[in-house]
Amino acid sequence: xxxxGKLVLQIDRLxxxxxxxTVLTDVSYSLPKGEIAAIIxxxxxxxxxxxxxxxxxxxxxxxxxxxxxxxxxxxxxHRIARKGISRAFQVSNIYPRLTTFENVRQAILTQQKxxxxxxxxxxxxxxxxxxxxxxxxxxxxxxxxxxxxxxQGDKKKLELALALAGKPELLLLDEPxxxxxSEETHETMQLVKRLNREIGLSILFTEHDISxxxxxxxxxxxxxxxxxxxxxxxxxxxxxxxAQKCYLGEEV
Amino acid sequence: xxxxxxFPAALFLLAVVLPFIVPEFWVHVLTExxxxxxxxxxxxxxxxxxxxxxxxxAAYYGxxxxxxxxxxVKANVPLLVCLPLSMLSAGLCAAVLGYFCVKLRGIYFxxxxxxxxxxxxxxxxxxxxxxxxxxxxxxIVPPAFLGKAAxxxxxxxxxxVTLGMIALWIISASPFGYTMRAIRDxxxxxxxIGINIQRYMHLNFIIAAMFAGLAxxxxxxxxxxxxxxxxxxxxxxxxxxxTVMGGPSNFLGPLVGSAIYTMLMAFVTSFTxxxxxxxxxxxxxxxxxxxxxxxxxxxxxxxxxxxxEGNAKETKG
Lengths: 252, 317
Fold this sequence. Notes:
heterodimer, A: alpha/beta, 6-stranded mixed beta sheet, 4-stranded antiparallel beta sheet, 35% helix, B: mainly alpha, ABC transporter involved in vitamin B12 uptake, BtuC, two-stranded antiparallel sheet
C-alpha cells in the first residue's frame, strides 16, 4: 500500500558535495506526519547540511525532497518556509537589535501575510498572538529586552519562538538545547513534546545530548560520513552494532 | 502628548517661528535644510532601516528635480501637479535600476548604486536637446501664489516636507518598516521566516527614491534652476554625511544632520572657501566621538529622544 500521503517529509537519494568533499551520499529518509524524529551522528556527519538542503540554504546536487507530497527540491528559502517548514538554528539566528517582542511579532506578521502593510503601526498588530507565543516559550519576562543581550539559553528559546511563529507543519530543530541549562533543556523538550501531542506538529531534530535523544525521539537515524548507517526506534538503534561502533560507543 | 512626539513637535514649532526672527538669507538656508533633510531621510530608509549604503541616491533626487523643471519650463504644469509626477518618475527610475541593485549587498550594492547614479548623471549631462546638458534648466519659477519673497516658498516647503516626513514615519513604523529592520539585522533569518527579501528591498528602494524625487522637485523652484550636478555622486555623498552627523538610528537624525551640515556650510563659506576641509574634519570628529550621530549621543542622556525602547538588561538563564 502506498503510504506517501502519510509522510510529511520524503527524501530520495540526496547528494551534496562542497568541491571535492562529499558531505551527503545518497541519503534517503522519510518522516511520517506527527512524529518526533532525531538525526544523530558525530560532528561533521552532515546533519546540519541535511537541514540546510531541506530548507533551501544550500542547493541540492542530486536527489529529491518532497514535503507533504509536493517536490520542494531547490525551492527558494522563503518559499519553503511559507510552505510550512520552519527551522531553528544551531547557533541562535535572531534579530539582535530588535526587542524579544519585536522579533516574535515580525515572524507572526510574516505568517499572517501582513508585512506589506505600510499604513498601520506595527505595534497595533498581532500583540496578543505575540504575547501568547512568548508565554509559551518562557520569554514573557523579557518582552522589552533587546534580543542581542539575551542569555544563550533565552536566545535558543527565542529561536524556537521564531520557528513556531510560522505555524509550521514540520519543525526542524538543529541542536535545540545547546547552551541551555538542564532545567531549560527539560522545559524546552517538554514544550516540543506538547506541541507534537496537541497540534500534531512533526518534528525533526539533531542533538548530541543522549538523554534528550532517547528521551524524546520516536524514530532515530544515525548519519555517519554522509550516509544513514542505522535507522529505527531508539531501542533498535541502541542495539545496532554499527551505530554503537560509529557514534554511540559507550555513551549508551 | 506622548514623550516620543515632543521632540518632533518642538522642531516643527521652531521651524514655524524661525523665519519671522532670522534675516532672509537664513530663511533660504532653512529652506535648503528642509529639502536636504527630506532627501537625507529618504536615503536613511535604505541606509538606516535596510542596512545598505547607497552612493547613487542623488540620481533619484535629480530625476525628481528635472521632472519638475522640465514640466514647469516646457509645459507650464502647476507645481502641485509636478510634485507627485516627480515622485512617480523617480520611483519608475528606481524600479528599473533598483531591480539590479537589490541583488547585491554591502560594498557591491554601494558600487552598483553609484554606477547607475553616474549613468543617470551622464545621460542628463549629454542630452542637450532635452535636459539642457551641462547648462541645466533655468527659469523654473515658483507659482505666482507663492510670490517672490523667501517666506512663502519656505512655508510651502515646510508643509510638503512635513507631509513627506510623516509619510516616511508611518512607513518606518509599519510592518513593512519592521521587515526592513529585520532584513538589516539578519537577512538570512528573514528569508527563513518566509520573506522574499529581494522583493521587499526593491520596494523599499522605490519608496526611498520617490521621496528623494519629491525633495528634488522642491529644489528647482527654490533655486530657480537645476543642473546635472544634482545627480552626481558628490551630491549622493551629502545625505550620507548628514545622516551620519544626525544619527541613522533615529528617524529625525537625517533632518537634524541636514540642519548641522547646511548651517555649518552657510556659516563657514562666508569666511573661507575651504568648506570641504572643514566638513571633512567635522565628519572625522563625529565618527570618532559620537558614532551614533548627534541624536545617538543625546539619546544616551535624554531617554525621550530614544526610539528603541529596549530594556538594556542582561537576562540570566
